[in-house]
Specification:
Elements lengths: L5 E2 L1 H15 L2 H10 L7 H22 L5 H22 L5 H8 L3 H7 L2 H20 L1 E2 L4 H25 L1 H9 L11 H14 L15 E2 L11 E9 L25 E3 L3 E2 L5 H8 L10 H5 L4 H7 L3 E7 L13 E3 L9 E2 L3 E2 L8 H7 L4 E7 L33 H27 L5 E9 L4 E2 L5 E2 L13 E2 L1 E5 L1 H4 L4 H6 L5 E2 L3 H8 L2 E2 L14
Parallel strand pairs: 1-2, 4-11, 4-12, 6-17, 7-8, 7-11
Antiparallel strand pairs: 3-18, 5-16, 6-15, 9-10, 12-16, 13-14
Amino acid sequence: MKYIQNMTQPKLILFIVLFIVFFDNYTFYTNVLQVYPINTDNTGFLLSLLVLLIAINILLFTIVSSKYTTKAILIIVLMISSLTNYFMNTYHIIVDDDMIRNVLQTNINESMDLFSIKQLLYLLFLGVIPSYFVYKVKINYRIWHKELLSKLVYILMSLLLIGMTTVIFSKHYTSFFREHKPLRYNTNPTYWIYSIGNYINKTVNSGSLELKKIGKEAIVIEHTKNEKENHTELVILVVGEAARADHFSLNGYDKKTNPLLEKEDIINFSNMFSCGTSTAYSVPCMFSIYDRKDYNYKKGISTYNILDVLQSTKDIQILWRDNNSDSKGVALRVPYEDYKTSDKNTICEDNSECRDEGMLVGLDDYISKNKGKDILIVLHQMGNHGPAYYKRYPKSFEKFTPVCKTNQLEKCTKEEISNGYDNALLYTDYFLSKTINLLKKYDNTHETAMIYMSDHGESLGENGVYLHGLPYFMAPDSQKHIGSFIWFGDEMKKDMPLEKIKQKKDDEFSHDNLFHTLLSLFEVETEIYDKSKDIINGD
């Protein structure tokens, strides 16, 4: 086939940059116009912003381009930018380093939940077709010194334009960069390129990573001698998925999303907040010894988490069962069982959507095999994983109608989205009640307890924002304020300061408290225990 036409390398870069700037930045322009509406004072600045975006992208692509890399780089950028454009326009997400980590740790079933014809059209018209043009065009490369000179001219012109625009409209750019920092998080492709660099910097190590083994001296304190019977502890920790606190009827929500839990003697923590706004960040953070402000990915993977510390006592048996993507590295050193497929999970629909209650099957056998030992079982839910909330529960739990039956939430009404989400919470209520009933069977032989704590919350279309994953500082409370409670069995209640805990049920807590609360619950003595962060025995 003949080439479409001949182009110089700088001309091709300019052409593609103009295409991306004009067609892949709708969300950026929309957000900018909300802050800087079109008027006589802002018109010049808005035009300069367009020039700035073009100049920065030309500078970036010119620096990294060469005879052997230009086409590959442009095609990759076009394809990724078309998809980021779709997700930013549809769900109003921000593609930062945490979102990239979340994407890389997402399994195929979760990815398919996000697939739509609209996404395919974005990819086709904004990714595949322009990429085909880049692939077919013939680039006329001149002799090396002319090519180098041309590149230097484009770099200098870009720098000049960047300098001129920021100086001429310095008043506007001062507020743009200082007061409206989140606006630039929607620039495409510059911000996702920056985020990839940030992700690599936070994730990839220059050398071998040494695991810091904290709490090596931890021991389980023996029960007092005068007890008639030495009951071992049996605790189930349920890690929820995308369960926002304000949709729990336990917290006053007008729809009965927790009818079964309301009948149980639980202590509901109405003011619990997550460590992050995505599963990939929140799950390892909540099991970490580090506070949210001190936590980062490298610290998390290079330091013992609470499961490691409990296991190191050699007196506590740990089991992690997962019906979500995976444990996000938390269960790397403890027994782990995958319940996402029908290979292990016996409660699945069409061999694809496996239910959380399937993780309870076989636990009686596990408990029996570990008779006389303290046990911690972690159950990682599929819960309210979006956007296909209607898939997260059996048909019999579709109490709230009408329901949004598509993953394209922008096509549904707020009522339909909320109903689908609330039905999924209703099924979680059933699953958690069933978990409590399983524990009640062991009241005569164990001190039993269940802790429920969601990983993060969820946006359901408020202010046009869907799902989760926004940077923490700008995320709405709906993505951070999470459902959480604790239930104690009859024997465990005897050792618990119940009235003291109940007095704190409306205090503000967070994932930061889980590490030290579990140490307290299992009566583990260690120098790393911080009583001030213990929900049970803390002051």
